[in-house]
Sequence to fold (282 residues):
Amino acid sequence: MTAEPRIRFTATQSQRLRELGAGAQTAERLFASSDERDAHFKDCEGELVRSGRRHLADVRAGERAPQLLALEQKLRQALIAAGFVQMVTPVIIGRDSLEKMGIDHAHPLRQQIFWLEDGRLLRPMLAPNLYTLMRRLGRIWSRPFGIFEIGPCFRRDSQGSRHLNEFTMLNLVELGLLEETCAARLTELAALVMAAADIEHYELSRTRSEVYGEMVDVEVGGTEVCSAASGPHPLDGNWGIVEPWVGLGFGLERLLAAREGYANIERAGRSLSYFDGVRLNI
Ligand code: ATP
Ligand code: MG
Fold:
């Protein structure tokens, strides 16, 4: 008689397999005996280690670029091909930028700011800088025009499986649209970015608020990868913007984790434990 399979990996084994990139199905398998389990663990670990080493060898040979950089490159190319202009703005911003974004002491994001000693801060988002450039370039450029930035942002977010303290944001905005076309344009731009990120399946979750207008999140398997909005927006006055616009903010590590099926976003982010999604203690 064979025993019913009900023996799990030990917590250490299961954690090791997950860190090496095993899916939930592998890490949660059941076995008839601890011998069978330990043998299976060795096989799985060996296979994952070999595949991690192959990946690192390919990167070393120049056969593949690190995924985060490759994604950034694809997004940049797609947006430039669509007529957007890339911006490069400061990572250190002033406290007034927060206030003009409506992030006052009551706002949850206020608790997540990395403050510098002189009262300035590491930007938690790209929107304040892009609002400023939208106004300044708007004095010079004809309508409509689009700008974007891809760069680091910082938040003291609770370090769960979906939050990093430093992550990479893509924010694109387009100014000077007809107000009645904004919602459709937002959908179109979300599709453009998701195609460039090679993610086929995603959902748009729309909410309409009297105060904030059209709000849209892009989700992959229930995880938010983007929040988007369109103007006129109540904050526009703070920034001297008086025309309709659309703006979308994507997290690149969230996009990578979604596309690669990573259970933990740490694998996709800046890290000393992982390089390009590969655990380094192999
Ligand atoms: P969440 O509710 O998931 O914490 P959020 O709504 O606070 O996210 P937004 O301010 O809408 O995030 O930022 C736009 C995008 O930036 C998010 O959709 C997400 O992809 C990414 N992002 C935000 N915070 C983080 C973080 N701490 N780590 C990684 N990516 C993040
Ligand atoms: Mg959001």
